[in-house]
Amino acid sequence: MNATLPRILAKGHELDLSEHTFGELRRSDDVAADAAALRQRFAEDGYLYIPGFFARADVVEARQHITTVLAQKGLLDPACPAIEGVKKEGADLSFLADPRPTVDFMNSIARANPAMQRLLYSGKIIRLFEGFFGESIRHFDFTWVRTMGKGFGTDPHCDNVYMGRGSSRLCTLWVPYGDITYDIGGLMLLEGSHRQAERLKHYLNRDVDTYCENRPEAKRIEAGEIPWKWGGVLSNNPYTLRAHLGGRWLTAEYRMGDILIFGMRTVHASLDNQTHFFRFSTDTRYQPASEPIDGRWIGENPIGHGLAAKRSMIC
Ligand SMILES: O=C(O)CCC(=O)C(=O)O
Ligand SMILES: [Fe+2]
């Protein structure tokens, strides 16, 4: 099967598509209605991939809002219908390279988008997580909306280093707002990486908002000049990372309605976007209500990775 795939790139590196290094995510739609089976599958795989979980029309409605915002910002090709999400030639996305404005932009798209709020924070998905955790649940108030133009995908990382100050059972929900072929570039997970916590413990114990007060960069962080010295990336080369840790990179050609759930210690990244279409997705977080929650991502205007999130230590 892998012989028929196109060139797949991540961070500019062509992935090895042979069967022992690359594959498709295992589907869990067969067990989606059975909480015990979902828990078992999650423990085995470190993720749950449930195609067709949401009604496609509901996802399209949320997409419509994203494309309207991008069109208003002049980022879409005016010759194509906005809903197609075609990036305007030469559109300046440099504001998305700086983590602070990007973070504000992401959440603002979600807050003004009732269809997205309904999809992510009510109804079916809440019931799924209640069943999965076996108790009432809580979600972060912050929504990460990704608007990825042509270029590199997200570096390999685990989410724990960005949101690890609360429950260790926290889960990420990744939702595509478009049909994402491999060349548009969706999320990929490293198979078996949730079982590598011992090997990755030095990485997993870090927190991007903790800094060394006795190092030269401290003053710049405290003055808000730079957001951090270390941005949480595990490796900037998905090809060599896989060779080092083993397992296959697993992904899919996602369709609107699909969902992917994974834990804080599962290594993931995204494929490069080789097209002129934007790739839209959200990532949101859910946990048992009874457990502590990471205060950076809660409230009307979460502090995120801002100054109020910083913690100093002597290194
Ligand atoms: O969509 C992406 O490129 C990255 C998403 C991600 O890191 C996440 O869902 O935790
Ligand atoms: Fe992530």
Question: Could you characterize what this model shows?
Answer:
The structure is a single chain. By secondary structure, this protein is of the alpha+beta class. The protein has a single domain (9-313), classed as q2cbj1_9rhob like domain (Jelly Rolls), CATH 2.60.120. 25% of the residues lie in helices and 18% in strands. It has helices at 35-45, 56-72, 99-111, 114-121, 124-133, 160-163, 201-204, 218-222, 238-245; strands at residues 9-10, 13-14, 22-24, 47-50, 137-139, 144-148, 171-176, 187-190, 210-212, 249-251, 259-263, 268-270, 279-288, 311-313. A hairpin with a 2-residue loop joins strand 1 (9-10) and strand 2. The longest helix has 17 residues, at 56-72. The chain is globular, with a radius of gyration of 19 Å. The model has no long low-confidence stretch (mean pLDDT 95). The site of 2-oxoglutaric acid has 11 residues, from strand 7, strand 12 and strand 13.
